[in-house]
Amino acid sequence: MKSLVMRRRRTIKERSSVKMQDDITKDNLELIRKLNEHSGVEYGWYYNCAIYGKCKATEMRVRFDLYDGISEVIRKHIKDVNNKNKNSR
């Protein structure tokens, strides 16, 4: 239900005086800051209770958890993409 409401918040906001926003924890905000500073990530963002970053090498979205090592997640993502591309040939 929450994701449906948050997806339509612009329409709801235009039709009423209701303001809506998603709460983000300090820890998640810190993770986004670290993603934005990491050389392997183009930028990070928060969406639907999860943190994502755009991998520079693959230009794909990657999901991050609070206690993941950013470099390790990027390395694994690139390896998985390369393996998938090899298998599809």
UniProtKB/TrEMBL annotation:
This is Uncharacterized protein. It comes from Mizuhopecten yessoensis. It comes from the Eukaryota.
